[in-house]
Amino acid sequence: MSEKILYVMGDGQRLVVKNFLHELEEREFVVRVVAPETESLGVLPGEPLHLLVCLSESMDFAVVRSVVEKAADSGWHLYLAGTINGISPEEDAFLKKVPGVHFQTFPLDIGIFMSEFELNDRARKRVLVVDDEPILLRSIQGWLRDDFEVSLVNSGETAIEFLCTHPIDLILLDYKMPTMSGADVLRQIRAVPKMKDTPVIFLTAYSDRSSVMDVMKLHPEGYILKSKSPDEIKKTVVDFFKNRIVMV
Q1: Which helix (H) or strand (E) holds 6?
Q2: How far apart, in whole angstroms, are the C-alpha atoms of residue 186 and residue 176?
Q3: What CA–CA distance (Å, rounded) separates 197 from 190?
Q4: Is 174 helix (H, G, I), strand (E, B) or coil?
Q5: Which of 33, 114, 187, 213 is the most buried (most CB within 10 A)?
Q6: Three-class secondary structure of residue 99 per DSSP
Q7: How far apart are CA 60 and CA 188, in angstroms?
């Protein structure tokens, strides 16, 4: 098993922060604290890593901007904890759009953190494709399998059964299926605590405004037109994991 390393930037002396870091160390994390200064970014590896930024009143927002820019360039996984009061509306809007996991209050939920860390740390994300068209299923599997662990099911009922026993990071779900529609599948997923937070992107053959509005009323993470090229479909999945924002 690879070493679980977490870099922490911010006031590591605050009791709520110290308690959280102690909890992580008890779970065999290696915690490395760095000063909340722009200069600290120069000592961090320029490669994918996990960085928890503990926001506080004393943190200069310019440091936050620098962290976000470096994270985008280096493929860092960001976890933002707490808030900075008194920032401008523009700065607040910027903060809300930062890809990563946003813990808005202390103490942090250790269970959620561990789950998100494991998802980010796993090299190959798990994608379930649900569609009643065998040719499309096999095609999407071929387009994604070099970068993702891809599972296939051909009905909504089978999808629900599969999800009860298999953890999945993203579902590509056909909107129009016989016996159980994609909309019905999504409603069932959202009703089950174990799987309710599983992200769903709809697959749809219809691009007219009315159809798209019907799809988005169900609040999926997005939709993919089946008419898109293989490269475009793959890019949508890649970008989802790269740009996902989780508010806790």
Answers
A1: strand 4-9
A2: 12
A3: 7
A4: strand
A5: 33
A6: coil
A7: 44
Report all structural domains of the chain as residue ranges with CATH numbers, in order of start: 4-121 (3.40.50.2300), 126-247 (3.40.50.2300)
Number of H helices, E strands in the chain: 9, 11
Q: How far apart are CA 34 and CA 10, in angstroms?
A: 7
Q: Work out the percent of the chain whose per-residue pLDDT is above 90.
A: 73
Q: Give the CA distances from residue 159 to residues 9, 150, 184, in Å, rounded to whole numbers and listed in that order.
A: 41, 13, 11
Is the dihedral angle over the CA atoms 8, 10, 11, 16 positive or is it negative?
A: negative
Per DSSP, what are the bridge partners of residue 202?
173, 223
The whole-number pLDDT of residue 46 equals 87
The pLDDT, as a whole number, for residue 9 is 95
Terminal Cα distance for the chain, rounded: 28
Which DSSP string do the residues of 28-57 spell out, in sequence order? TEEEEEE-SSGGGGGGS-SS--EEEEE--T
User: How far is the C-alpha of 125 from the C-alpha of 172, rounded, in Å?
Assistant: 13
Q: Mean pLDDT across the stretch 9-29?
A: 90
Is there a contact between 111 and 183 (Cβ–Cβ < 8 Å)? Answer: no
Tell me whether strands 77-81 and 50-54 are parallel, antiparallel or unpaired.
parallel
Q: What does the chain come to in residues?
A: 248
